[in-house]
Amino acid sequence: MSRINCERCLRPQNHCLCPLIPSLASRTRIVLLQHPSEVRHALNTARLAALGLRNAELRVGEVFDDLPELIATPGYRVAVLFPAEQAQVLEPYSNGQDSRPWLLVVPDGTWRKARKLLHLNPLLAELPRVSLATVQPSRYRLRKAPEPGALSTLEAVVQALNVLEAPEVFDGLLKPFDALIEGQIAAMGSETYTRNHVR
Predict the structure, then answer these.
(1) CATH of residue 169
(2) Strands 29-34, 56-60: parallel, antiparallel or unpaired by DSSP?
(3) Which domain holds residue 95?
(4) pTM, whole model, 2 decimals?
(5) Over the stretch 169-188, which tens digit does the pLDDT of each residue have?
(6) I want to staple 150 with a disulfide (CB 3.0 to 4.6 A). Which of 12, 126, 145, 168 is the partner?
């Protein structure tokens, strides 16, 4: 017998996260491009970001033919939130000369799949990159980060918004994420979690 999932958060109905998902306004526009393999992932943090932010949009695919229309938003500076040697470090809006808000395109997938999205979408690869000056440690305690400073998509979005829109704080977006992690730890049992994940 298959489990019935919530149509909004895609979680099993008895583990629905919707009551924990906020509805936050932001100056920054977030466009999440999700690799199809992430849609049914247990965490699916890009979906949590899209549901929790009013000025966000989630698209699923590998090739985004409508990308020019997606990023053609008057009044915004456009960049990809993804590490690169030439990436511009994000600063609070209050610090800068340019008062226009950012439209941040955020590829969602494993590092390999996120890079594939950049490769398959030449316009995406041509956009400037932005990154965080300081990365707070990930709250995803269930697996070792593939690279130093690696974050889930949701964590990266929250940290970017916390920098850009300070003193506003977007940590409320992490409530459903934390609940997911705690639920997975509870499901595996504290002994198994301690043995396999706590150093």
Answers:
(1) 3.40.1280
(2) parallel
(3) 23-140+149-197
(4) 0.87
(5) 999 999 999 998 887 777 66
(6) 145
